[in-house]
Design brief:
6% of the residues lie in helices and 54% in strands. The protein is mostly beta strands and 613 residues long. The chain has a 22-stranded antiparallel barrel. Strands 1-6-7-4-5 form a 5-stranded mixed β-sheet, with no helix packed on it.
């Protein structure tokens, strides 16, 4: 069993109570208006909302972002188990090639170079968007797409759910407004024993040492100083405690991992008649403690940002965007494998956006500077044209990924001579829509040189990081959606298929991949479908995802599919109360995503949400 979460709790509850004790003196009659957390992304990439209706917001309110992306978007998520390490693989890219943004700033760990999606509560960021494209106005390090975390901060609600295997989840959101001042508070608590039964090779076996606990807190303030100046401030706290279960080849495990994060941002926005200046000053502090018997690893890092964006409307057909970001990375001396280290980075980009009638074009250029690293100039181009109900878009961009701190400096195995991963990508997007139908086809092509891999050394007894591969990713994504409203109910359905070929252009010894073979943990076929019915007070949704077979490091990963059933009834009193039933993996399918790491069978959860708006 995990110990109670204590780290920073007294400060957490002070943050929760203080603004509401002050604001409680104000009148109760308030008009609720949203606090805008992130500005609109208008970079030509297909930034699509992860959730597009109220049913899915209820369905996934106790899920982390990784679970939502897999079950709602059909995205391949490399998950080690419920609430354990989860990273995305978008179009065959690795997890550290996907950019995760909060307030337009990357939040990925500077040491690992990636963000664990199981540590992001979906209920905090229900307005988040996903772009599988490599084009991003926030930098060119988006080889594997961009996840943009955005909030809807206009709710007063509380929710609770309980499920099998010790699953408990509770959360609340409080929104206050007085004249030009707004405050929004969110808190989320999750825990689970995860002691489910699985049957490797027909032998029933309980999962052990798999408990998780999470507490997360987010406080946002927004004040309108004048008609032209707005000031926002936000703080996001995380503490996660996880036991790490044994693999199928182990009999027991004592390993644990604790994560802490403190993320703070100040966001002044000045709006002129034809221009906007958007500034963000931020500091992120992250710590991770791993223990397994006598083995202890403690990593602590800090990220300081100063970013300013300038947007100017030249005329009705032309707009220019400028962005500059200064970043300081600090590694604190808590681990023998990483010495104390500090690094400054500077990223600058310019975009010209031209729009006339039904045609839109965007030309971008990004240049980043880092000591002892040669960062190529990164151009990008987008052209979109509307032909009646048909939209045609073409993207062409150069992208790169800077080696992580671990890649360069971890002892042993880090390589200070690593070059940045880099290459060109293209995308053709066709979309046709009518009143009730939407049909889309997206073809993509991407070639990345200097792909970084950790492999056994010929000289030493440990693995080392090297630029040893070239990867070619290409494929087709297709989807069809139908929606229609009748007199007493509405119906929505969708089906999607992805064919992804992501192959090494060189022979690799470890993992053993021949030239032209599919990369490990990259299913070639992915299928998704859902059916949703909604009446005035009831809603029903069935969704199903399928992932084809893939190759692990040691063995093949069999194809698998999972289905979800969600039923909700809404009671309308003075407050709106939703009572819901959520069944995950309804057909109780036995499967693994990461080899030798079993996933749970059927899980039944019951819950409610009270909306005080």
């Amino acid at each position: 069993m995990l110990p109670p979460i204590k780290h920073g709790m007294k400060y957490l509850f002070l943050f929760i109570l203080l603004p509401h004790l002050i604001l409680a003196q104000f009148q109760d009659s308030m008009k609720l208006e949203p606090i805008l957390i992130s500005g609109e992304r208008n970079n030509g990439a297909a930034h699509l909302s992860i959730i597009q209706n109220e049913i899915d917001k209820l369905k996934y309110l106790d899920n982390n972002l990784g679970q939502v992306l897999m079950n709602n978007q059909g995205l391949y998520i490399k998950s080690y188990g419920p609430s354990h390490s989860s990273t995305p693989s978008i179009r065959g890219a690795s997890g550290n090639q996907t950019m995760v943004l909060w307030h337009g700033l990357p939040i990925s760990s500077p040491t690992l170079g990636l963000q664990d999606l199981s540590l992001i509560p979906f209920n905090f960021f229900t307005a988040s968007s996903l772009s599988k494209s490599t084009v991003s106005e926030d930098g060119a390090e988006a080889i594997g797409g961009t996840l943009d975390l955005q909030s809807e901060n206009n709710s007063r609600q509380a929710e609770f759910s309980i499920g099998e295997y010790g699953t408990l989840s509770g959360g609340a959101q409080f929104h206050w407004k007085k004249k030009d001042f707004q405050s929004n508070t969110k808190i989320q608590l999750n825990q689970a024993e995860n002691d489910f039964i699985f049957e490797p090779k027909g032998i029933r076996r309980p999962q052990t040492n798999a408990a998780v606990k999470q507490v997360q807190f987010l406080q946002a303030f927004d004040v309108k100083i004048s008609d032209k100046l707005n000031l926002g401030a936000e703080y996001w706290y995380l503490n996660a405690q996880r036991e790490i279960p044994p693999t199928l080849t182990q009999t027991s495990s004592q390993a644990t991992q604790d994560d802490w994060s403190h993320r703070m941002v100040l966001n002044p926005v000045y709006s002129g008649k034809r221009f906007i200046i958007n500034t963000r000053i931020a500091y992120f502090l992250d710590e991770q403690l791993f223990q397994d018997g006598s083995l202890v690893s403690n990593i602590k890092s800090g990220n300081a940002y100063f970013q300013t964006g300038y947007e100017q409307v030249i005329n009705k057909n032309l707009k220019i965007k400028l962005l500059t970001r200064a970043q300081n990375i600090q590694i604190f001396p808590t681990n023998e494998a990483l010495a104390e280290y500090s690094e400054w980075r500077n990223m600058n980009s310019v975009q010209l956006i031209i729009q006339k009638n039904k045609t839109k074009a965007r030309i971008g250029l990004t240049k980043e500077f880092i000591p002892n690293q040669k960062i190529p100039l990164a151009p990008s181009f987008m052209l979109r044209r509307q032909f009646g109900s048909l939209s045609v878009k073409y993207l062409h961009a150069f992208n790169y990924r800077i080696p992580s701190i671990n890649d360069r400096f971890w002892k042993p195995g880090g390589n200070t001579e690593l070059e940045v991963e880099n290459g060109w990508s293209q995308e053709l997007d066709l979309r046709w829509s009518s009143k009730n139908f939407e049909l889309s086809f997206i073809g993509f092509n991407r070639k990345i040189d200097q792909w970084i891999l950790w492999t056994p050394s010929d000289e030493y007894a440990w693995w080392v990081a090297n630029n040893i591969s070239k990867v070619w990713s290409r494929g087709l994504e297709s989807s069809v959606k139908f929606s229609k409203e009748y007199e007493k109910f509405s119906i929505e359905s969708m089906a999607a298929y992805q064919h992804i070929r992501s192959t090494s252009e060189f022979d690799l010894a470890v993992p053993k991949i021949s030239k032209g073979d599919q990369l490990i943990y990259t299913p070639e076929h992915q299928i998704q479908g859902s059916l949703q019915l909604k009446t005035k007070n009831q809603s029903f949704k069935y969704s199903h995802v399928y992932f084809g077979k893939s190759t692990g490091i040691n063995e093949e990963i069999k194809s698998y599919h999972t289905a979800q059933l969600f039923v909700n009834h809404r009671f309308r009193f003075k407050q709106v109360i939703n009572i819901f039933l959520n069944i995950n993996n309804i057909w109780n399918h036995q499967y693994v995503i990461i080899e030798r790491r079993p996933m749970p069978g059927r899980i039944i959860k019951l819950g409610f949400q009270v909306n005080f708006n």
